[in-house]
Design goal:
The protein has about 130 residues and is α/β, with parallel strands linked by helices. The protein is about 30% helix and about 20% strand. The chain contains 5 helices and 6 strands. A 6-stranded mixed β-sheet has the order 2-5-1-6-3-4. α2 (about 50-60) packs parallel to α4. The termini are far apart.
């Protein structure tokens, strides 16, 4: 058994398959899940695991070039907006409806137990060299 890092075998395996430019949608319990990408549902109950815990865990495991979040997050969920602004090297904002369209191109969807509005981000994988 792994001692550290991501222990969920489905998530660990999915992360190992990602390449440069692949998208990872980290979403709350209310975001529509697009058809097509691999889905790892971590939601246990409302708020568990939190959006912040999942984003931080993924950023520990992945090289991320940037991310895209819904513009509405800045007004409706300033805590999540602040978290993303602090942690992502290049964060852009688009209308929520556009984020839903962009999420269709994600290679992986990771669903959190977050139950606050617009706690969603589309991460863009980078390379470690």
């Amino acid at each position: 058994m792994k001692r550290a890092g991501i222990l969920n075998r489905h998530l660990a395996g999915a992360l190992a398959e990602l390449g440069h430019g692949d998208g990872v949608l980290v979403c709350d319990a209310g975001m529509p899940i697009p058809v097509g990408p691999r889905v790892v549902d971590l939601a246990f109950r409302a708020g568990v695991p939190s959006f912040a815990e999942v984003v931080d865990g993924l950023l520990d495991e992945l090289v991320v070039e940037g991310g895209t979040a819904a513009a509405e997050i800045r007004d409706a969920n300033s805590e999540a907006a602040g978290l993303l602004s602090q942690r992502l090297p290049a964060l852009s904002f688009v209308p929520h409806e556009e984020l839903k369209q962009l999420s269709r191109g994600a290679r992986l969807v990771v669903r959190t137990g977050e139950a606050r509005p617009y706690a969603n981000v589309l991460l863009r994988c980078g390379v470690f060299f």
